[in-house]
Amino acid sequence: MDAHVRKAVFDWLSEQVQLHGDVLPRSVLAQGFMYEGNRVPLLGPQGIFKPRVLGLPLSITAIPSGPYDDGYSPDGLLHYRYRGTDPQHADNVGLREAMRQRKPLVYFHRVVEGKYLAVWPVFIVGDDPKALTFKVEVDDASFTKYESTGEAVPVPAEESRRTYITSTVRQRVHQRSFRERVLQAYREQCALCRLRHEELLDAAHIIPDNEPEGEPVVSNGIALCKLHHAAFDRQFLAIRSDYVIEIRQSILEESDGPMLLHGLKEMHQKRIILPTATEHRPNPAFLEKRYQRFLSATR
């Protein structure tokens, strides 16, 4: 039963990611799904969660700025704090047994209030009672075999693969956190055209994230639809430090149908929509730096 439920959880999560993307609403995860007449929620109020249908924990949840200092270690593994300070707390004992039985779990990382990045399968691979910490190996589903019983068997992790997968997960956490915080600041709409379909929105960096100033902070981001994000990145348009849009002159002189007219040319000299919170508004110095690059590229 345990093995089949976990496999059903992974299949259901794959379906939800297809619908919502890999950042999932808490309401969906807490509701879960029905399996042979039993409801299987995927998370609860505590970080270590076991649904009634299972005897061992199903998921672990990390909440930034929460009571536990979860993080990544130099050896490429996730460190996950015990619940409380008692190594014999039932939740800690449950995770320890999941480690012994090599049970695959789901790791949820809260990126903003009510939204979680889902990563699976993960395996508990170490236990340090003195540090009140478990070590967690993040793996890729393609490296997990299922026997005829439905039992999940992790393929032994090579150091290079484990390090790569862990760094990929860390990068995804940073990217998704940045996106969700920026979209939230802009009230889930494009700052130029007000498009509200979240699936078509991006968090555009003002200063690219591969530069020293390109930190994943909201004031270095702007919520843009995919059309305007591409146009912003390719110097079709710029946003000045006074928050006014400027369209490249060659585009203004071009004639190419209604999309160009309404999607770009009509934006010229209009002011972008701004976040309500002043500290979340685009950094004028960053906009000016980006605007000078726009001028250099369009001369």
Description:
- This protein is of the alpha+beta class and 299 residues long.
- The chain is 32% helix and 24% strand.
- It is built from eight helices and 16 strands.
- Strands 1, 4, 5, 6, 7, 8, 9 and 10 form an eight-stranded mixed beta sheet that branches.
- A hairpin with a 5-residue loop joins strand 6 and strand 7 (78-81).
- The longest helix has 27 residues, at 159-185.
- It is elongated, with a radius of gyration of 23 Å.
Tell me the number of strands.
16
Order of helices and strands: HEHEEEEEEHEEEEEHEEHEEHHH
Number of helices, counting only DSSP H or I runs of 4 residues or more: 8
User: Which percent band covers the strand fraction?
Assistant: 15-25%
What is the helix fraction of residues, given as a range? 25-40%
Calculate the mean pLDDT score and round it: 89
Structural class: alpha+beta
Describe the sheet with the most strands: 8 strands, mixed
- Oligomeric state of the chains present here: single chain
> Would you identify the regions where 5 or more consecutive residues have pLDDT less than 50?
none
Terminal CA distance reads: 67 Å
The shape is elongated
- Report Rg: 23 Å
